Amino acid sequence: MNTDWQLRTADGVDCFEYSPDPRLVLAFFTRRGGVSRGPYESLNTSFAVGDEDRNVEENLTRIRHALQLPAIQTMKQTHSDTVLTIAGGPVLAETLIGDACITGQAGMGLGLKVADCLPVYVYAENSSCIGIAHCGWRGTAAKLAEKTAREMSRHFSVPLSSLRFALGPCICPNCYEVGADVRSEFSREFANADAFFTRSETPKAQTSQNRDGTAERPDPALDPLSPRSLDPFPKYRLDLRAANRWLLMKLGLLETRSIALCTYEDGRLFYSARRDQVTGRNLAVIALR
Length: 289
Hints:
By secondary structure, the protein is an alpha+beta fold.
C-alpha cells in the first residue's frame, strides 16, 4: 500500500501510482515504455490521434499487465458532462460516449485518455465504489467532477462526506492561457469564477519603423501603458485544479493525495496537446482490486 504517489516501473512501463487501500489503486501512466513511434512515442493509449492500432493495442496490454487487471474500460470522450455507470464485462470504448464513469465492480479499471486535461479520481472511503472524470475547461465549466460525485453518492448510497478525491497531472495555470470566451463561460456557472483566472501580462509594445524612417505607432493592444480595456482579445490563465478542488470540497468531499505535475512542462514524461498539437495520450486509471 502506497500512502503517496510513487513513480514505478512495471512490465516495462512507467507510471505514478497511489494506493490508499490494498483494494484500491490510482495510476497515471507516463509516455515511457510503449512501442509507438514518431510524435506518439512511446506509450500512446489513443486510437483517435493517428497512431497505428497495433501499437496502441500493445501499449494498452502492457498497461493492463502492469496493474494486473483483466480489463480497463475507457470511453469515447467528447468533453461532455455525461457520467456513465459501468457494470458487467468490458465493452468497446466507442460504444460508450461520455467523459466520466463510475463502478462498484472489482477487477475492472476505469480509464481516461488525457494530454493536458485534468483527471479527477473519486472513491469511497471504504473502497466500495470508484469514479473518474475528464475535466478540461469544458468539463470543469459543466461541473463534471461534482456530477460524478453526486451520481456515485446516489447510485451506491454513499454519503458525499464519505467520498474522497485526488487530482492527477494536468496543464498548470502558468502554461494554460485561455480567451475571454472561456472566462465568460465560467462566470455563468461559478459565482466565484474570478478565483480561478489570472489576467495574462500584456506583451511589451513592439515598435518598428515606417518606410519613411519614422517610428511606427505601437498597437494599443500590445502597449503595456495603454488601458487594458483597449485590448480586444484579453487572455487569462486558468487553474483547472483550483476550480475542481473548490467544486468537490464544497460538496463535503475530502482531498487525499493529489499529484501537482504539469503535462505541458515535462515532455519527457507526458504528452501535451497544447505543446505538441499532434501527439499521444496518457492514461489515467482508477481500479478496485
